[in-house]
Amino acid sequence: MTGHSYRTDEEAVEEAVAVLTSAWRSATAEQKEDLRWLFNGPHSPARDPYEDSVVYYVENHGLIKIGTSYEVERRARVLGGQLLATEPGSYDLERQRHCQFAGSRVGRTEWFQPTAALRRHIAGLAGGGGRSPLPPPATSWLS
């Protein structure tokens, strides 16, 4: 193989960061708002996507979604449901909860029937009445 040049992963990341940083600097305020999810999201080179993650419980249309997010308030708004509780954790804990409540799972989705066991678990997380305290918002690397 002659004439081929392959970049390392580090070189590709450096190039991507340079392109994104340039785009951010030249963007309008409205464009920045649209791009903020990308710069603060799981693909941000300055962010560990698991660091601020929580397992959340959102109720909508009589079902409860068990998911993982680092922007749980935003995720609840996107889902259009009520945030019932959160617990510190990431995808491993989410999978454990999916297994724990597998008997009430709706198909192969992340939605569950609100069984007594699931409700008790959520109530324990939320202190019996409200939702659990949310993690502090993540800081942006592009402040």
Count structural domains: 2
Radius of gyration: 19 Å
**Continuous helix count:** 5
How far is the N terminus from the C terminus? 45 Å
What overall form do the CA principal axes indicate? elongated
Q: How much helix is in the residues?
A: 25-40%
Written overview of the protein:
The protein has 143 residues and is an alpha+beta fold. The chain folds into two domains: 9-39; 54-125, no CATH class. 40% of the residues lie in helices and 16% in strands. The chain has a four-stranded antiparallel sheet, with helices on both faces. The termini are far apart. The model is unreliable at 128-143 (pLDDT under 50).
Task: Give a nutshell description of this structure.
The chain is built from 5 helices and 4 strands; from the N terminus they run H-H-E-E-H-E-H-E-H. With 143 residues, the protein is of the alpha+beta class.
Topology (SSEs and partners):
Blueprint: H1 9-26, H2 29-39, E1 54-60, E2 63-69, H3 72-79, E3 82-88, H4 91-100, E4 111-112, H5 116-125
Antiparallel strand pairs: 1-2, 1-3, 2-4
Question: Which terms summarize this structure?
Answer:
disordered C terminus; four-stranded antiparallel sheet; elongated; alpha+beta; 143 residues; 2 domains
